[in-house]
Predict the structure.
Amino acid sequence: MNNFNIAILGCGTVGSGVAKILLDMKSELSIRANHTIELKKIVDLFPKKSAAPYNLPISLFCGGGKDLSPEEAEKYINEIIQDRDIHLVVETIGGTSDFVLNTILSTLKAKKHVVTANKAILAERGQPIFQTAKENNVCLGFEASVCGAMPIIKIIRESFNGDQVKEISGIMNGTSNYILSKMQEECLSFDTALKLAQEAGYAEADPTLDISGGDAGHKLAILIKLAYGADIDYKDLLKEGIRNIDQEDINLASEMGCTIKLICYAKKTNDKIYAAVKPMMVKNDNFLSKVNSAINCVEVNNKYSGKHFFVGKGAGSLETASAIVSDIVFTAKYDGKISNLPETVKCELVDSDHFEFPFNITFTTEDFPGITGLVATAIGEQKINIDTVSHNRHNKENAVFSVITMPCTMGQVKKAIHEIKKRAPSILLDDPKVIPILY
Amino acid sequence: MNNFNIAILGCGTVGSGVAKILLDMKSELSIRANHTIELKKIVDLFPKKSAAPYNLPISLFCGGGKDLSPEEAEKYINEIIQDRDIHLVVETIGGTSDFVLNTILSTLKAKKHVVTANKAILAERGQPIFQTAKENNVCLGFEASVCGAMPIIKIIRESFNGDQVKEISGIMNGTSNYILSKMQEECLSFDTALKLAQEAGYAEADPTLDISGGDAGHKLAILIKLAYGADIDYKDLLKEGIRNIDQEDINLASEMGCTIKLICYAKKTNDKIYAAVKPMMVKNDNFLSKVNSAINCVEVNNKYSGKHFFVGKGAGSLETASAIVSDIVFTAKYDGKISNLPETVKCELVDSDHFEFPFNITFTTEDFPGITGLVATAIGEQKINIDTVSHNRHNKENAVFSVITMPCTMGQVKKAIHEIKKRAPSILLDDPKVIPILY
């Protein structure tokens, strides 16, 4: 059996998990891969700290176990890239820096396979990476980059080759789903739920990327590339997080038979991609509404085979690592002959104004008669059919009420709101909250 | 672009769906496969009838469209097997006859790839098929054989190569799940629910294979082969269907926070496989309990990446066909270099007496004092811890009550029941009903 030698760059939460599984399961993995899978080298700035959680042998670390300066680490990385005895490099440094990008590109150019969990760089700067892998005829494994251990990359790229992906809707950020679940199950405020998420290890000290929809957006951009071959510009993707969701929204959703979820949504019609990360009110008979806590769920709706749901842990050290190891085994087994890289198709990412959904629009207004009529008239004038005007909640200072529309575009809704503001500048006490309803 | 030519043997519900997708999506599939995917020939006894639902061109049918005798069909099949211009044969004849087995084996020996949805033959007579494919270095695609469009074969064979499958539990028979859902949601009797399933097209006129657990057993045997490499003897697999479930069981399950599902269960410990198809009481916080109607759901519990759930339509013409077409595209793309065939590992299928679960045992007895004590004593003597003795329901003639045990083996439960019968031969009015509880 030939050797298939691995180096790991960056031995944090995920990288150390990869090392652990490669060592623990070496003989089993080698049988599956028909190659002796050998972890040869690890580069990390702080070997002792990184080796500790899984008790990794310190001898694997470049530099013999002492802490490295960035320059030393770079030197070792370059040695690995030049080393003809290394067949595959695991990039678990993370981030979108030039350094990481160049490391990946140099590795691919040196005809080494790369496996990475780095969703951010693939979403924001993926184009040269995919192209360089293709030009150099080497594999780029990135199953771990979207929803950790859930095998959604392989499913979309390979399992649905006999079908056509019409629509993707997913819960792809565990932190946000944990917070929303706590807010809904235990009537907590956003801030209390966020604090709980941090205490439980589901949210970072700085949770911005998670709760802003940025992390979910990275994953959605990658799935769009896979399902539709489209290189969308990550910057142009609408990403709205859960920061503004409050108990008022949650109660209203519940009364409407819905659950609020942060949804990654994409659909292709002709050459146009409709996509966004947005909190949505998910109807309770949709399976996505039942997925709680830090769990991920992706729904893929296909032309021939209908709706599929995939549920699993979207993050975690060994969870994400297992997806990386799976990519390693597959690459070794087929000597890198299997390429998962999608063809690039010309597609246009449509402005979110063209997004078509039924919407729930919540207005907070002054409390006097006639406002409902004014609002409903302005909405009707934009050719939006109204499903329900519901739930007038009057308190001392204001009225809160919701208009649920039939399917219309976000642009129509915006125009209606603009008209209301123009006609009665003072009655809206807050910007109306617009939440799509997902059936 | 080279041609990749297909013949379809058997153009019933699934075969005709394959033909439709191959024709509808030809240009798209050809790009994905990097080969021109060409449907060349179809063999079916009744071309006109088979062509009708999707309006397939009659010119594709061997014999020019006229009905064929079995002898004529066999002649055309042999021509296809000899035809150097056919690269892949889709077997959608179905059944476990010698004729179908020999057709598959001859096709593989003629160095043609085979794609099939035939779970029965793979489960009952799969060994020579897998071996012949391997010896002849050709592909055997069978994604469609387990849960139709749900890509569970590829997931278990490839996506979890960096992990270890600890346990599989699945709802893998849509008919049974439809019937149980109707019984639970609408308080229907088994017979009424079965009739509804037949009217809705979810159950055959003769539903035996579905409601007896046989069909689910076929799928489970294939998954056991994939996950554990074990060639179990299908005959030895415990298969118990839903025929004996009644409203009494359903009410009791509901009071215990459970839902009754027909579960395909498999676990490997050392070299031993524990497996069965059995109705189980699934705890309502287990995702499987939420999957209703004719939908399938497979839970895979892995060592590193934890629990995954895959939900989708397990049957249907185009649904199953899309899985077959996906196998065709993948085989064409890689010129048949990718083999999904598992290595065979020596494993023993453990007798179901060793099956360990918490159990619910329902006793129907004569109604007089002392019986609960007698039953509980006999159970305790088998070193079974009792969790709850619940729900004494006394009516004029008898008492119905349930004992919920802590985890123990089926063998222990059987012995306890045997003891009760021996000590008080007349008190049991019916065989106690033993249902495992799935957390």
